[in-house]
Amino acid sequence: MYGDFSDVMEKSDERMEVVLLATGSFNPITVMHLRLFELARDYLHGTGKYKVVKGIISPVSDGYKKRGLVEGSHRLAMAQLATENCDWIEVDPWECLKKEWTETALALRHYQRLQTCTGHTGAMEKKPGHRKGQKRKRNNVREDVPDYHCPEGRAPPRVKLLCGADMLESLGVPNLWKPEHVVEIVSSFGLVCITRMGSDASKFIYESDVLWKHRDNIHLVQEWITNDISSTKVRRALRRGMSVRYLVPDAVLDYIKEHDLYSEESEGKNSDLILEPFLRNSTTPQQ
């Protein structure tokens, strides 16, 4: 359908390099979370236009205040265990270790800025005269960034947000996302969305003027081997003493048992709090 795959690989230097970023609770991480990366990479490579060079899992911070959200240190450790044998997906603690919740658009800016500085080689070059302790510049996204000089050469990898159909459809929930952030995500970065049974992502895009306008930057990937595993269902099974083996990586299951995670008590955590996006977007002026 897309031509000879070997020819595509030989011309890999002509393809756009892509970093796939998945944000979310990962409470706990499941095999389906990892599957999303594989499906997205296969799809993007199959177009002959893209080369996926890295996947990043960025667990949300405790400041998200979602019901049943266990401590970030546990979610981070489980994600690291799940990817310890993967040679292209890594877990980044930048977002998870923050006290406050980081909006997805800001996370995308952060990781894109890192790619801009490191390029595809992974090496950053400091400007001459940059010394330890030297004051760092501030940019227009209100975050401190090192004063790095980015090596010249080919364009840096582009960061795209990897998500499931549920996240895509959440873009239409009032006060969950800032409208300007939705525009930025689909226009400046792009989405790779893995569809699943029971969702109609194409219809959702059609019914949204913003998503329809930027539909060429939204990649819908059909999962033909249907899998309805979710963190919510895994937690429910654990609370009821049911087996979740083969739904989460073995190392993750061992960690859950060792630390006695996911009980009736843990599921009630944050039950008296408002989800941070709703609280922030409904009480402060949008910027």
From TrEMBL:
The Cytidyltransferase-like domain, residue ranges: 21-236
Class of the enzyme per the UniProt entry, highest EC level: transferase
UniProt catalytic activity: nicotinate beta-D-ribonucleotide + ATP + H(+) = deamido-NAD(+) + diphosphate; beta-nicotinamide D-ribonucleotide + ATP + H(+) = diphosphate + NAD(+)
InterPro entries according to UniProt: Cyt_trans-like, Euk_NMN_adenylyltrnsfrase, NadD/NMNAT, NMNAT_euk, Rossmann-like_a/b/a_fold
Keyword Nucleotide-binding: yes
Pathway: Cofactor biosynthesis; NAD(+) biosynthesis; NAD(+) from nicotinamide D-ribonucleotide: step 1/1; Cofactor biosynthesis; NAD(+) biosynthesis; deamido-NAD(+) from nicotinate D-ribonucleotide: step 1/1
Name of the protein this chain belongs to: Nicotinamide-nucleotide adenylyltransferase
Annotated source species: Ranitomeya imitator (mimic poison frog)
